[in-house]
Amino acid sequence: MSALETTQQPIPPFHLAFPVDDLEKARAFYGDTMGCGEGRSSSEWVDFDFFGHQIVAHMADCSHNRLHLSSVDDHAVPIPHFGVVLNMTQWEDLAKKLKAAGTEFVIEPYIRFKGLPGEQATMFFHDPFGNAIEIKAFADLKSLFAK
């Protein structure tokens, strides 16, 4: 049974720590542009509510962030990346907000597998520190793991 099939218990939030080299820039991007609420913080890190999940921006040297790419649907997908699966309305709203903020997309928002099992919306972009992010949405969330 998958986590999505467990209707009695919510999916537990994930935790991800990632490098940034400017906490104010992180607050502007994740807080203002992405709309993520801020939690605890110190002079070395900031917690953000990433759509119900905890991500933590930690001060680090970002000059070593290396870009790797994987070919998917004739796109060069940045590896590693992290993200979240939203509902379609949330995804569309966030895509509009990111475009309005002048976000440079690695892969522009588009729909994959249109009309097929697993139909999904996706977009890729980098935060100001080179961390790659993918935001997805599914026409039917039950098809998250469809083959």
Automatic annotation (TrEMBL):
Q: Which PROSITE patterns match?
A: VOC
Q: Which Gene3D superfamilies match?
A: 2,3-Dihydroxybiphenyl 1,2-Dioxygenase, domain 1
User: VOC domain spans which residues?
Assistant: 12-138
User: Pfam families annotated for this entry?
Assistant: Glyoxalase (PF00903)
Quote the InterPro entries the UniProt record gives. Glyas_Bleomycin-R_OHBP_Dase, Glyas_Fos-R_dOase_dom, VOC_core
- Return the PANTHER family for the record: PTHR39434, VOC DOMAIN-CONTAINING PROTEIN
Instruction: Tell me what this protein is called.
Output: Glyoxalase
